[in-house]
Amino acid sequence: MEYTAKFLAQLLKGTVEGDENAKATKFAKIEHGKPGALSFFANPKYEEYVYTSQASILLVDKTFVPKQPVTPTLVRVDNAYTAVAELLKYTSAQKKKARGYRSLLSRWFPFSTKFGKKVYVGAFSYVGRRVKIGDNTVIHEHVTIGDDTVIGRGCILYPGVHIFPGMVIGDNVILHAGCIIGDDGFGNAPQPDGSWEKIEHLGNVVIGNDVEIGSNTTVDRAQMESTIIGNGVRIDNLCMIAHNVIIGDHTVMAAQTGIAGSTEIGKYCILAGQVGIAGHLKIADHTTILAQGGVSGNVRKENQVLLGSPAIDAKLYMKAYALFKRAAEQ
Questions:
Q1: Domains of the chain (ranges, CATH numbers)
Q2: Is 140 a catalytic residue?
Q3: What distance in Å separates the CA atoms of residue 264 and residue 283, rounded to the nearest whole number?
């Protein structure tokens, strides 16, 4: 996309210092700024690049006072970091606008399927019976949507997403490539002869609004009721959410996190990479579990930062680590 300094100032509620017709067609880090690029300056340690950048447009704070001549046209905004985030979001939305087209290479759509306005369905995608899809939702190629599923407005389903029958997905949900929603949970009952009997799972998955789930992440359906992903949740790639799990609103988790069955994660929690949480637990709101933390018991107190396996208070863990490291060196 092409932006002029004048347009950016209008969009971001800023002012132009320099050529208001200066144009940018790509984004670049300030240290890599070249003609035709748009960069931003928000961290004082990068100030040296302000004076060497050849970018066409540079977003800066209104309070910034250059100490040397500057080549780019400046667009002054209240907060450059916030402004560039807003601009990236705007650009992404423009690129992802639904085209309102259903590919002839997609499977036929049952009469019982209800599409909203401007729904795009890519080639080789399957949409089952009695499915409801909201306005402006984009379904990319090779997506499977099972019978009786409900998908809200403004969603994006990237290639290879598979949604099993009966799932409920809210508005503005992004499911990245290879994401699996609603397969059977890992339920098996031991038998007297040592074999295992599969336990059928008849529940579903309910995903709230404004949720993003990364590539190759799996969310299992509940055994009887619902596995629930709250509003505003962010889940990275390669995560595992087991059956009957509940994840509270606005919780985030990084790659390779695994949550065992029937565990309830509170609101506004942060789970770093490779965190593992055992089943049938409750994790309090505003809990942070640092990378590779392993949780085997309930976390009842809010606002804790945990580390280690089994996870304990992070500061206590670092003290303990210093002791056993020193002991090993003796």
A1: 3-95 (3.40.1390.10), 114-318 (2.160.10.10)
A2: no
A3: 6
| CA dist., res. 163 & res. 165, Å (int) | 7
Amino acid at 280: H
What is the tens place of the pLDDT at every residue in 269-281?
Answer: 999 999 999 999 9
- What residues contact 276, with CB distance under 8 A and at least 6 apart? 257, 258, 293, 294, 295, 309
Give the SS3 label for residue 76.
strand
User: In this structure, what token pair is assigned to residue 197?
Assistant: 């009997």
What's the token pair of residue 172? 């503005």
The length of the chain, given as a count of residues: 330
Q: How distant is the alpha carbon of residue 49 from its chain centre?
A: 31
Residue 27, Cβ neighbours under 10 Å: how many? 18
Task: Considering the candidates 243, 250, 280, 286, report the single residue annotated as catalytic.
Answer: 243
Helix, strand, coil shares of the chain, percent, nearest 5, are 15, 30, 55
Q: How many C-beta atoms lie closer than 10 Å to residue 64's C-beta?
A: 16
The pLDDT tens digits for 191-229 are 999 999 998 899 999 999 999 999 999 999 999 899 999
What is the side-by-side order of every strand in the sheet holding 132-133? 114-115, 132-133, 150-151, 168-169, 204-207, 226-229, 246-247, 264-265, 282-283
